[in-house]
Design a protein that fits this description.
CATH topology: Lipocalin
CATH class: Mainly Beta
Largest sheet: 10 strands, antiparallel, barrel
Strand content: over 45%
Order of helices and strands: HHEEEHEEEEEEEEEE
Number of domains: 1
Structural class: mainly beta
Shape: elongated
Number of strands: 13
Distance between the termini: 60 Å
Length: 287
């Protein structure tokens, strides 16, 4: 009986809570939820030559070469997402500013190992937000939401084509999603308060591609994309990234561009059908 009363009260506060239910998965500069999401394919390791070297095709080293990438993704979020078990799915349209108001922190990074024509890529994105609100009525209660997102991805790419001006890679990968929401209503409406929680996780297979075009000198353009899901995890997911790159020296490359990541996942009453998009900045170091 107490839980049903709390559910009715919680529905009245949906405008205050809907940000917290979805917002976590939109930040990547501070997942998903949410990254990639995503993956290092978003910020590929430098393939353009250093500023002092003439333009030419990327050299294939005799041994493995390692790259580390730190990136920030300032993404907004729009779509339809479930909140918590007492509340129905709701439409969301959040800007980066909306998300940053309640942002607790995040961790984003990627690594790539290249050996000959092969690349093995891993990426991790972890974010958390904690919005708060107040239930209206005679016995007001504070409502606190903690929303956490983890997105992990691993890809294997093979260089299909390499020339003086362009490189083309293609391969396959897996993208793992983890969403964890917890809502706490403090004593007021209910003498002892109440807590609701819900978690969802799934794995999406993806087909990935990467194209690097050298513009001359230290400049290059990188285009990255993947699509997948295929009802294995989500019904469908896709991603597109474009960056302009500047090779500072043999070890360091700077990148700036735009990224969009979409997923359509349903499991029973849970729904997460959203698109995240916004500018992205990255720094890649060759070890």
């Amino acid at each position: 009986m107490d839980t049903h009363r709390s559910s009715r009260r919680a529905r009245r506060s949906r405008p205050a809570l809907r940000c917290g239910a979805a917002v976590l998965f939109a930040v990547a500069g501070g997942l998903d939820r949410p990254a990639r999401a995503a993956d290092l394919v978003d910020i590929p390791a430098p393939t353009s030559p250093p500023a002092a070297a003439p333009a030419g095709p990327a050299k294939v080293p005799g041994g493995p070469v390692f790259y580390g990438t730190f990136y920030l993704w300032g993404a907004g979020l729009e779509g339809t997402t479930s909140t918590l078990p007492p509340l129905p799915a709701t439409d969301v349209n959040l800007s980066l500013g909306d998300i940053l108001k309640d942002f607790d922190g995040g961790l984003m990074g990627a690594a790539e190992m290249r050996l000959g024509n092969w690349s093995v890529i891993g990426d991790a994105m972890i974010t958390q937000i904690s919005p708060e609100g107040t239930l209206p009525g005679r016995f007001q209660s504070d409502v606190k939401l903690r929303s956490r997102s983890v997105t992990l991805q691993g890809d294997v790419l093979y260089r299909l084509y390499a020339s003086q001006h362009i490189d083309v890679d293609a391969g396959i990968g897996l993208r793992y999603w983890y969403l964890d929401n917890r809502m706490t209503i403090t004593p007021g409406v209910l003498p002892n308060g109440i807590t609701f929680s819900e978690t969802e996780n799934w794995v999406d297979p993806v087909i990935a591609g990467r194209v690097v075009t050298r513009l001359g000198g230290p400049w290059s353009i990188t285009l990255v994309g993947d699509l997948g899901g295929f009802d294995v995890g989500s019904q469908f997911t896709w991603q597109a990234i474009g960056t302009l790159n500047y090779q500072v020296n043999d070890q360091l490359a700077l990148r700036a561009g735009y990224r969009a990541l979409s997923v359509d996942y349903k499991n029973g009453d849970f729904e997460y059908d959203v698109r995240m998009q916004g500018p992205i900045l990255g720094l890649t170091y060759r070890f």
